[in-house]
Amino acid sequence: MTFELPLWNPARRAARMNPSILREILKVTDRPGILSMAGGLPSPDTFPVEAMRAACDKVLRETPREALQYAASEGFMPLREWVANHLRGQGMTVDADQVLITTGSQQGLDLVAKVLVDAGAPVAVEAPTYLGALQAFAPMEPIFASIPSDADGPLPEAVAALPHDAPGTRFMYVLPNFQNPSGRVMPEARREALIAAAKQARVPLVEDNPYGDLWYDTPPPKTLAARWPEGVIYLGSFSKVLAPGLRLGYVVAPRELFPKLLQAKQAADLHTPGFNQRVVYEVIRDGFLDQHVPTIRDRYRAQRDAMREALTQHLPPGSVWQAPSGGMFCWVRLPEGCDAVALLPKAVDEGVAFVPGAAFYAHAPDLRTVRLSFVTLTPDQIHTAVAIFGMVLKRHLTEDQPEPTP
């Protein structure tokens, strides 16, 4: 008997690439009648279609050859300058030559991982944290160090202890503003304490800020990058304030790191689509976002309020949650004994989808947690979806109770 070696022999890192539970759940939402609180999708009703159409016409009329040709890997310079000016207005110290335009901020995470992570190197993450970041970092074979968190964010004392607990930590990944999945915002005092702890531990930070403009009452405190420019890589995105289909984000990097990120970008895709960059620049160059983003906030605030009312009305005792002050998500901890993964198919059978929170942990997942997105449903749909979710949850709790002893 002879044995043939397999024709294709995937790299070791391929074994660490797993399908996104979010993408798999989104397939379920294609079924007719599903009320989805699962996907982290912005509302398509916020997309500035007419402004995009006019910008496309202008770009194709005035600079068609340039827009459809290969372009600089760093990005379209007027757009890079706009990003730098925008961030300086928020207190950051940044020049256009530190801005790298990426194919969505998700690519920024991938580039950071390729440049900074070796196999076996520690990478610190919040608990919970963004699933897409775990997916981007995992193929580089890091050792994840989970930083415990409370309602204000990661605990500074745990960050300060990293040299002892995870020596050689390459960076800590953090989402200070309306975090995905928890929805929490890091207050001023915690930001200062986190920066002090990171400096003490000599652990640089990767700050991801896709939701910072989606505040409902007051803007969040100034960024971590504004407090420690040389120690923070900052990621931003146009997906939540314009349209995710454009796949347009950016990385702001310390000067010493920028060349390597640029080389990783060149190897990945040469450059972000130049046509998309020029269209977005035409849309935003004259202050469009100053009028557009408040309309998104107003819409999402009403949906957040509907979610808060519905959760108060329909969730059983023992459920713990807090209405977010911005962003797109509400984080719920179910009553003791609940397993959100086991609950999901029961909810889907009743026409409702959500994301079990276990997927957002690098270690020791909390099986009782659930992420609910509220921005793609109307307030009436939110009330209906949460009512169904609450009904399924109460029935689940009853079914899992042990039968009384005779």
Average pLDDT over all residues: 94
Name the beta content range. 5-15%
Task: Determine the oligomeric state from the structure.
Answer: single chain
Give the low-pLDDT segments: 402-406
Number of strands: 15
Helix content: 40-55%
Q: Could you say which overall geometry the principal axes of the C-alpha atoms support? A: globular
> What's the total helix number?
15
Provide the gyration radius in Å.
22 Å
Main pleated sheet: 7 strands, mixed
Strand order of the largest sheet: 2-10-9-8-7-3-4
Order of helices and strands: HEHHHEHEHEEEHHEHEHEEHHHEEHEEEH
Structural class: alpha/beta
Walk me through this protein's architecture.
The protein is built from 15 helices and 15 strands. It has 406 residues and is α/β, with parallel strands linked by helices. The chain has a 7-stranded mixed sheet with strand order 2-10-9-8-7-3-4, with helices on both faces. A 4-stranded antiparallel sheet has the order 11-12-15-14. The chain has a two-stranded parallel sheet with strand order 1-13. A hairpin with a 2-residue loop joins strand 5 and strand 6 (153-154). Helix 2 packs across helix 12, helix 5 (105-116) packs parallel to helix 6 (131-137) and helix 13 (288-314) packs parallel to helix 15 (379-399). The chain is globular and about 60 Å long. The relative contact order is 0.16.
Gist of the model:
41% of the residues lie in helices and 13% in strands.
List keywords for this structure.
four-stranded antiparallel sheet, globular, 15 strands, alpha/beta, seven-stranded mixed sheet, 406 residues, disordered C terminus
